[in-house]
Amino acid sequence: MKNDTICAISTPLGISGIGIIRLTGPDTYRIIDKIFRPAKKIRISEVPSHTVHYGHIVDGKKIIDEVLVTIMRKPRSYTREDMAEIGCHGGLITMKEVLSLCIKSGARQAEPGEFTKRAFLNGRIDLTQAESVLELIYSKTEKGLEISARKLKGAFSDEIKKIKTLLIELFSDIQAKIDFPEEEDIERYNPDILSRIEKIIFFIDSILSRAVKGKIIQQGINAAITGRVNAGKSSLLNALLKEERALVTEIPGTTRDILQETINVKGIPVNIIDTAGIRKVRGRIESMGVEKALEWMKKADINLVVLDGSKKLNEYDHQLLNYIKDKRNYMLIINKRDLPQKIEKDYLEEHFLKGHIISISAKKGEGIASLEEILYTLILEGYGEIKSDEIFLNIRQEGKIKETREILLETKDAIIKGITVDIIAEYLKEGINKMDEIIGKNISEEVLEQIFSKFCIGK
């Protein structure tokens, strides 16, 4: 790890009430003393930790900004190094000038995620906690935030450490029997070894099962809005978002591109995809829009099929209805209930699940709350009850856990086949190494760079 001092703007660039510039490293307070003129006669290098000081950032005699400087001394800081945060006014030019002054005074511009990387390398958090910081930032709902916060506190790390402890205990017992073979017959202990391996696999399966639901909370499910042209798909999107996101006109076929937005349905992010209307096409661009709509129907977790209640079903409606007739992951939304109804509702109720049919007026916002209730019920039907104690695994973590599971299955198979006990021990040692990799032990610099490159600068 580089033992220098880094700095970065930690708040989004733009016009805002305040903007934060963060520094960490051995020269933090020397730099602050150089550029900060406190209102009271103090030296920042001598003040207590976790104190805030009012004054001005200056470049020589020139005043740059009126600021508050927060001091956090090692090891009681985010990085376990000396840290400071300069609270500036949130103007773009102001923050850039203060940042430039920090760099001119001896700091270096931080790389993406370098503050969190230092927290990891200095032992304040393990790698799963470091990765949860990114998940926390990108959480889409309160439940997602809760999952990420628990992971940041170490809840997932504790589970991984428990698996590692079970593996180490089993490895140690086997190793003892290898070292003193004359004392006990190893084959007599095979049933016990198998039982303990089964227990670890069960624990891993529990994590993977919860991770399926955790992924839903963190990343959401995809719901495609489809329907014939001018059925009111864009109006429905706007009603769900409670804002005018999609262009709505009386001209048929206004939506030709795919629009994507996310709504919060009782803590679960639902990624709504508003597709082009199904109709007789009059050109390649419209044709591509229709093709995309049908593609989304195939890969969506839930299909929201919008029907125009003021008109009878036509061939394009039946094209969509035929696609979903043997499925359960759909909702038939009869729109425009504020107009005289001509749609064959008896036919729909006879051939489709009655609980999946709802009449609304997207334009007037009528029935939207009931629609969201049915949508939530569909989610529960597909995935079961989703609680806040689910867990989110990123691709790296999930891969390592699944690799450990495969190693344990191979270990079981080896025991049943009577393979020598020293080989069994090697299998277990490999499983222990996988657990270490999850929490960040024995991990390559290349992998670390890949992980922290996804962070924003300043975090």
Can you tell me about this structure?
It is a single chain. By secondary structure, the chain is an alpha/beta fold. It folds into three domains: 6-124, 2-Layer Sandwich (Gyrase A, domain 2); 133-216 and 394-439, tRNA modification GTPase MnmE domain 2 (Four Helix Bundle (Hemerythrin (Met), subunit A), Up-down Bundle); 222-383, Rossmann fold, CATH 3.40.50.300. Helix content is 47%, strand content 17%. The chain has 15 helices and 13 strands. The protein has a seven-stranded mixed sheet, with helices on one face. A six-stranded mixed sheet has the order 9-10-8-11-12-13, sandwiched between helices. α6 (155-179) packs antiparallel against α7 (190-219). The longest helix is centred in the middle third of the chain and has 30 residues, at 190-219. The protein is flat and about 80 Å long. Residues 246-256 have low confidence and may be disordered.
Q: Give the name of the CATH architecture of the largest domain.
A: 3-Layer(aba) Sandwich
The DSSP helix count reads 15
CATH superfamily of the largest domain: P-loop containing nucleotide triphosphate hydrolases
Number of domains: 3
CATH class of the largest domain: Alpha Beta
The assigned structural class equals: alpha/beta
Strand ordering within the main sheet: 3-4-5-6-2-1-7
| CA(first)-CA(last) distance | 17 Å
Topology as H/E string?
EEHEEEEHEHHHHHEHEEHEHEHEHHHH
Classify the fold: give the CATH topology of the largest domain: Rossmann fold
Which band does the percent of strand residues land in?
15-25%
- What's the count of strands? 13
**Poorly predicted sequence stretches spanning 5 or more consecutive residues:** 246-256
Oligomeric state, counting identical vs distinct chains: single chain
The profile of the biggest β sheet is: 7 strands, mixed
Provide the helix percentage. 40-55%
Mean pLDDT across residues: 87
3D shape:
flat
Rg for CA atoms: 29 Å
